[in-house]
Amino acid sequence: MATKTTENKDNSPVKDSSATAETAASASKKNIQADNASVNENEMKNSPLHKFFVSALKDIYFAENAIIDALDKMQEAATTEELKEAFEDHQFQTKKHVSRLEKVFKLIDETPEKKECKAIKGIIEEGEEIIKSTEEGSMTRDAALIIAAQKVEHYEIATYGGLAQLAITMGHDKAADLLEKTLQEEEDTDYDLTEIAETYINFDAEQEE
Ligand SMILES: [Fe+2]
Ligand SMILES: [Fe+2]
Questions:
Q1: 152 alpha carbon – ligand 1 mean position (Å)
Q2: Residue spans with biased composition (Basic and acidic residues) (predicted)?
Q3: Which residues have CB under 8 Å from 142's CB, separation 6+?
Q4: Can you tell me the distance from the alpha carbon of 100 to that of 199, in angstroms, rounded to the nearest whole number?
Q5: Which bound ligand lies closest to the C-alpha atom of 189?
Q6: What's the 154 CA to ligand 2 centre distance in angstroms?
Q7: Which of 27, 69, 123, 174 has the greatest number of beta carbons closer than 10 A?
Q8: From the CA of 186, how far away is ligand 2's center (Å)?
Q9: Same domain membership, residue 119 and residue 130
Q10: Residues 60 and 41 in one domain
């Protein structure tokens, strides 16, 4: 009895495993490209760098939304028409930045979500303090508001610059193009704010008593 069982056990697994091996080999030949693609995609999604990239996108998605609200208050508080207009224009651009980020999330198969960004909350709070501590209708207020706004732009420039480079490294070319487009607009805004300060604001602010 014991011998028969052993023979059966020995014979059948050998036949079965060779049959399974043949089936698996032909199946993997047919599907090798699809398998590799899904394995690569899963590996990519689980990589620490991809996770960091998504987390940083959620951070800047929160920041851009907070900036839309902050620009309302800054526009209202500004003294000169030049600065009011600059804030209004950039608020319009910032709404585009939000929708571009939503496209980036979609391109990498992730859901747009906000993750509280303490840095931008702090920078926006600083702007609110400037409004409280400067006189309404003064040029000093505009000079100070420009610096507050440029701190926001520099935070965004650092973020988009880094994220665009990471997107290139990870092969997300379309996402990189969108991030670079926003980066360019943040850099242009920073430049325009400097122009406004030097042309319309700083000299008059210096004359105030
Ligand atoms: Fe932005
Ligand atoms: Fe901006």
A1: 9
A2: 1-13
A3: 78, 79, 80, 83, 201, 205
A4: 32
A5: 2
A6: 8
A7: 123
A8: 5
A9: yes
A10: no
Instruction: Report residues near ion ligand 1: CB below 5 Å.
Output: 94, 97, 156
- 162 alpha carbon – ligand 1 mean position (Å): 14
d(CA 157, CA 149): 12
SS3 state of residue 171? coil
- pLDDT tens for each residue of 126-176: 999 999 999 999 999 999 999 999 999 999 999 999 999 999 999 999 999
- Structural domain including 102 reads 48-207
Residue 53 lies in a domain: yes
Distance (Å) from CA 148 to ligand 1 centroid: 14
Separation of CA 156 and ligand 1 centre (Å):
6
Q: Give residue-wise pLDDT tens across range 12-61.
A: 444 444 444 445 555 555 555 555 555 566 777 889 999 999 999 999 99
**Per-residue b or e along 2-32, where b marks 16 or more CB atoms closer than 10 Å to that residue's CB:** eeeeeeeeeeeeeeeeeeeeeeeeeeeeeee
CA of 94 to the centre of ligand 2 (A): 6
Q: Give the CATH number for residue 97.
A: 1.20.1260.10
Same domain, 32 and 86: no
Domain count, the chain: 2
